[in-house]
Write a sequence for this structure.
């Protein structure tokens, strides 16, 4: 009987959650058929059988499983199926939840009282917080009882994933940062016109993404990754991750082969990303494979932001919200123009300050003379 293993779905998580089985134990399945749903810190992904046969579950839904773990077998109908370890009475406790229970000294009887079929780490955190909260006071003495020192809340699944990426980036990447100011008046005018023409929302993010992608061949280091201490890997195409935060956590879905994508297609893709962020419907395959980051900052009060360089990439370009400012013309006149800051955080092991400045100037020039960005092919 062939083993069905959990693939490595991202670089942030050491353990995933088997949310549900899409095919029951003993079902006939086909190669390529989705049979299970695995949840990571940021998305849910369907796991497919790699062959025809009879599916035999090895892990119950709701359990934690590490990348590479065997969760099922697929074999001939007359092959002996795997034996499941019988569960004890009570809820199914995920491995992270059990580890926290052991750390805090929380017993099985206490989690049974939650009346949940599956106990996750967040359930244990809530339980621990309730144990440390004071008992409610009677009406007569409520004024004499001080309020709790502070409320404890667990981080969301998405934010825990962000935290792991941030910690790994800051501990492994020696970053530097440069910033330029770009006159984006012409770019915003073009974006407004193109929005009407293609019937898709086009703004600075779409134009900036296109500007960066078109520079892939001229500045390959910006899209490279460090393999070992003295070797570079240069990708054959720019795959640009774009930060999206709709209030439910930050995601970074990827626009693949961005230099060859029509601007209308880029606009449609970013619009779909925003909808997926609102609904939390990303798959891990949507979030994997970036070799460049475009970090968007929409708050008009944020003039400068230093983006995170994701492990496995060499730089991240930050686009701040434009602001109207006085600008000197070539004739010495002062006019009001919309200006935006462009910042580049870069891995100093691969990229030097001069390279970063030249790349930023090239992006700036593209935004200040933006008509070429409306084209389809890299030029």
């Amino acid at each position: 009987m062939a083993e069905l293993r959990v693939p490595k779905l991202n670089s942030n998580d050491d353990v995933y959650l088997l949310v549900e089985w899409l095919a029951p134990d003993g079902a006939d399945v086909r190669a390529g058929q989705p049979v299970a749903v695995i949840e990571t810190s940021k998305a849910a992904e369907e796991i497919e059988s790699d062959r025809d046969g009879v599916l035999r579950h090895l892990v119950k839904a709701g359990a934690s499983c590490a990348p590479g773990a065997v969760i099922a077998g697929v074999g001939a109908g007359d092959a002996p199926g795997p034996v499941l370890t019988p569960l004890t009475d009570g809820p199914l406790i995920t491995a992270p939840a059990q580890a926290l229970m052991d750390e805090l000294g929380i017993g099985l009887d206490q989690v049974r009282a939650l009346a949940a079929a599956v106990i996750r780490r967040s359930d244990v955190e809530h339980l621990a917080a309730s144990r440390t909260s004071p008992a409610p006071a009677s009406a007569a003495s409520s004024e004499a009882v001080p309020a709790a020192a502070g409320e404890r809340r667990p981080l969301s699944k998405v934010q825990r994933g962000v935290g792991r990426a941030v910690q790994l980036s800051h501990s492994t990447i020696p970053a530097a940062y440069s910033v330029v100011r770009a006159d984006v008046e012409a770019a915003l005018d073009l974006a407004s016109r193109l929005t009407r023409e293609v019937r898709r929302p086009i703004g600075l993010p779409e134009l900036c993404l296109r500007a960066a992608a078109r520079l892939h061949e001229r500045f390959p280091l910006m899209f490279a990754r460090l393999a070992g201490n003295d070797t570079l890997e240069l990708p054959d195409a720019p795959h640009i991750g774009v930060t999206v935060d709709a209030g439910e956590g930050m995601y970074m879905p990827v626009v693949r082969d961005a230099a060859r994508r029509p601007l209308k297609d880029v606009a449609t893709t970013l619009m779909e990303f925003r909808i997926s962020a609102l609904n939390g419907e990303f798959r891990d395959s949507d979030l994997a494979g970036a070799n460049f980051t475009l970090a968007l900052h929409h708050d008009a009060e944020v003039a400068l932001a230093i983006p995170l360089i994701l492990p496995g990439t060499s730089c991240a370009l930050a686009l701040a919200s434009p602001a109207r400012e006085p600008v000197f013309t070539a004739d010495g006149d002062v006019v009001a123009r919309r200006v935006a800051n462009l910042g580049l955080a870069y891995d100093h092991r691969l990229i030097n300050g001069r390279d970063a400045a030249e790349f930023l100037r090239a992006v700036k020039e593209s935004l200040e003379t933006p008509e070429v960005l409306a084209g389809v092919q890299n030029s």
